Amino acid sequence: MNSASTTLLTEHLRWTPLSLIDDIINSINDILYQSVAAIENYLLNASPPLLGFIPPPGTIPDTDGDGNVLFSEKEAEEISRGVHALETLLENGVDKYFDSFELYVLRNILVVNPELVGWVRLAHHRDLDLSSIPTIIPTDSATSTRPRIPAHEAQSRIRTLRQTLLASHALNHTLRSEIETNTRSLAQLRMLVSAVTTSVDGLENPLSFINSSGGAKEIKDSASFAVSQTDLIRSLLKKLRPQFDALLAQRAQREAEEALKEGEDTEMKDVGGASVVTVSAEEERKRYIERMTRRHMEASRGLRLNAKGEVVGGNFEGAAKKRLEEVEALEEVVAGLVEKKGEDEG
């Protein structure tokens, strides 16, 4: 395919002719793989006798919970090999015939006669006025002193200019789309703001309070009041911070005193600017394990535990006593059997 024809079509269509062929072939391949997957799914869901897989005499085939006959490993492997062979055959056919399709399209459809390339004027070339460009008549001295640009460099410059022109057109199209979107958004906002009624198209106008009586003034007054209260809130927070730290220190001190009464490990720690006795990290870990164990016992076993971890509520003592009596009775029975066996042997 002629490069000048390809460049002209790319500039006109905004995409290369080869990309169209690639999209068509990719779509065909997607349909091919979907068809092969559907065929494989059908074969695996069909009954084995329907596909010619008959079990040998004297054997019972495997079945599922509904009584349907299942494929053996050998039969499933044979189906997989057959599907793979079908997929390979279809891929070779697509590659063969669509290569011919690609050549035909590029040579006979998506092509411009090289003799007509220089005479084609595209839509964005219509307003170009080339008659105002002055004609420079080279003199002998100019011709002798100015070096001539090589042909490949000139073609590279032309290609760069064409790419820049295409990028400019794409950017122009994007900007125009953004302008249209912003214009529509502004029109909707102006309609909402300027609406006198409290509903637009049967829905409540969320900005109707702006045009309501005193709406703008109320917003301004509310904002001013919120700003004026900022310093007061900051001063209150500054006053409350020491009190909060003191509460933290008192709480830590109280927990440490309780730990000392129970004989738990403690350590000195700076809380709120004061040195207090706090529970050690190991003791904290023990308390956490105890809390999680208590929560598990209450949630899974339905038990109620007191602060010491003892079971409260229900006749648990009677149940334990009853189990103890059963164990003692079993021990007496076993002892009697042992004695009887000794007497028989004697």
UniProtKB/TrEMBL annotation:
Among Pfam families, the record links this protein to: Mis12
Alphabetized UniProt keyword annotations: Cell cycle, Cell division, Centromere, Chromosome, Coiled coil, Kinetochore, Mitosis
Q: Give the UniProt subcellular location, in the record's own words.
A: Chromosome, Centromere, Kinetochore
Top-level taxon of the source organism: Eukaryota
Give the residue spans that cross the bilayer.
Answer: none
UniProt record similarity statement: Belongs to the mis12 family.
* PANTHER family linked: PROTEIN MIS12 HOMOLOG
Q: What is this protein called?
A: Mis12 domain-containing protein
Organism field: Discina gigas
